[in-house]
């Protein structure tokens, strides 16, 4: 097995033509999964799934609410509370409260 120092310059950087390694197998698997997902879950199927999740969220399913919010707004902070109340027009009002640790 060749010494890796044979493939480095005086500053310790790898030179052109070094054998390198296999790369990140995790990233390669992740890419393969994404490609498979895109083949199986076509855009029309994805839209149907999104409508299902949205419908559940609108009925007060907190898991569906969290999933939608996190995908649209980013991760909800630890300790945040989500509440759903019925609005006067019949549509739910969804509130997210974040406890910042300060006491009044």
Secondary structure elements and pairings:
Blueprint: H1 25-40, H2 43-58, H3 62-73, E1 81-86, E2 92-97
Antiparallel strand pairs: 1-2
Question: If you had to describe this structure to a student in words, what would you say it looks like?
Answer:
The chain has one domain (23-97). 42% of the residues lie in helices and 12% in strands. The chain contains three helices and two strands; from the N terminus they run αααββ. The protein has helices at residues 25-40, 43-58, 62-73, and strands at 81-86, 92-97. A two-stranded antiparallel sheet has the order 1-2. Helix 2 (43-58) crosses helix 3. The chain is elongated. The relative contact order is 0.07. The mean pLDDT is 82.
Task: Give a quick summary of the entry.
The protein has 104 residues and is an alpha+beta fold.
Distance between the termini: 66 Å
Query: What about the largest sheet?
Result: 2 strands, antiparallel
Count of individual beta strands: 2
Helical amount: 40-55%
Q: How many DSSP H or I helices?
A: 3
Number of domains: 1
Task: Give average pLDDT, whole number.
Answer: 82
Order of strands across the main sheet: 1-2
Low-confidence runs of at least 5 consecutive residues:
none
Q: Could you tell me the radius of gyration in angstroms?
A: 24 Å
Q: Strand-residue fraction?
A: 5-15%
Run of helices and strands: HHHEE
Class from secondary-structure proportions = alpha+beta
Apparent shape? elongated
């Amino acid at each position: 097995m060749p010494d890796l120092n044979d493939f480095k310059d005086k500053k310790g950087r790898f030179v052109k033509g070094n054998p390198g390694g296999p790369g990140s197998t995790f990233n390669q698997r992740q890419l393969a999964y994404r490609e498979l997902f895109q083949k199986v879950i076509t855009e029309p199927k994805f839209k149907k799934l999104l409508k299902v999740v949205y419908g559940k969220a609108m009925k007060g399913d907190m898991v569906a609410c969290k999933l939608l919010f996190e995908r649209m707004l980013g991760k909800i902070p630890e300790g945040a509370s989500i509440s759903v109340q019925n609005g006067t027009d019949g549509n739910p009002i969804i509130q997210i409260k974040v406890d910042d640790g300060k006491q009044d």
